[in-house]
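Q: Joint fold for the lines below.
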Amino acid sequence: MSEWRLYEVFVRSKHGLNHKHVGSVHAADNEMAMENARELYTRRNEGVSIWVVPSETITASASDEKEILFDPSEDKVYRHASFYKLPDEVGHM
Amino acid sequence: MYAQMVDTGTKRLKTLEEMSPEERDFQEKVDAETKIEAKNWMPDGYRKTLVRQISQHAHSEIVGMLPEGNWVTRAPTLKRKLQLMAKIQDEAGHGLYLYSAMETLGADRDEEIQKLHDGKAKYSSIFNYPTLNWADMGAVGWLVDGAAIVNQVVLQRTSYGPYSRAMVRICKEESFHQRQGYQILLDMMREGTQEQKDMVQDAINRLWWPALMMFGPHDDESPNSQQSMVWKIKRKSNDELRQMFIDQTIPQLEFLGCTVPDPDLKWNEESGHYDFGEINWKEFYDVLKGDGPCNHERISTRRKAIDEGAWVREAAVAYAAKQKQRAAKAA
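A: Joint structure:
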């Protein structure tokens, strides 16, 4: 099975929701990846749509890049609505 | 438990002071219940232990299809046959979730399966017992899947993210297995002939002790448990899990109107648990070593499946290559 490609599987559980990563499958081609994903991840109405993506085509952030990537957003509190205090009289905004 | 006696390669636990900075970071993360993910740094022993445990768990799911496959063509009704096939397909699915989780650690699926076929990798001792009558399908679902659930519910909190997520998925599906098993027995006890009721008792008599063995040796005989608990791969000890299983199973057994083959089993008012007799550990180690009633048959069935399916896998690859070539030509 090593010569079969690894695919990552994403399932949309309901109309209106995003596809979410659920796991992976091995397959000889895209079509088989779809069939295998269907059998493996949606045997009980878990989804209405499936994406299969060859794992090697995914670019992922590395865990040691966490600070470089995500720390800058931590010191920008003014990007959150809660930063702006309004008088009660203004009501809901 | 679906993984028994998983070797951690550890003789003695390290203190935080003895650890390298990376190791200490890792342990502190584990202690804080932060899940470890595939790309995070982890001690070599942690990685190896997980590969051993998850592959053993996966092999158990796959080999576990065989005792039940024995009854697909002989299920008493079409309804029971469909239920049994759905359960068996789930087991295949569980094996695949687990192999995928194992692969995130850099292990190769084919290599690990080869180890199973060479007798170098273990799978749960329980699947080396035969399924002799239809009631065994009920008893396996109720007791064997029941024991697996006790173990797996706790493993949902295991420290390695991909393993934990596979467990969540598996647990969702597993309670169908246990209920369908119990219902088989309930039907036989309520509506069956005397002969059918005897079958139920016979199945329980044969499978009770092997089900208790699934949890592995006593805590003090289980040197690897300690390390696995510190790494939070394991969350509860073998004896704790076994006791939980017995406590929840005996009332169900009494409702069926059956007994277990243990004269020492009785409710202990003081401890609030059931007391029970000693497991035949020689039998456990013999089965684990390969001398159970069905070890040889199980592995040769697996080997045969892989060997005789080789042409299908090769054809799939050839077909994919041809389709790709055609698409390239057409473009």
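Q: Anything notable?
A: The radius of gyration of chain B is 22 Å. The interface with chain A takes residues 37, 39-41, 89-90, 93, 96-97, 100, 103, 108-110, 165-166, 169, 173, 313, 316-317, 319-320, 323-324 of chain B (CB under 8 Å).
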